[in-house]
Amino acid sequence: MRELLLNAFKDYAEGNIQKHRANVEVYLANPVGIGEHSDILEAIESEVKHIAEFDDMLEVLDKYFDTK
Known about the structure:
Elements: H1 2-29, H2 40-65
């Protein structure tokens, strides 16, 4: 059960990283096509912060729960 839960959380975090990374790629490829974001750099900053948050979570799992 332990491994199942840890793997599920890792998959969740990695999926969120990919989601926010894809958003950054969209902003970079077509910044004028994102009408609701007038400040593209601010939008990218927000996405990168989300990536960092989930990446930190993965590091904590590896460090304190031996998931490697």
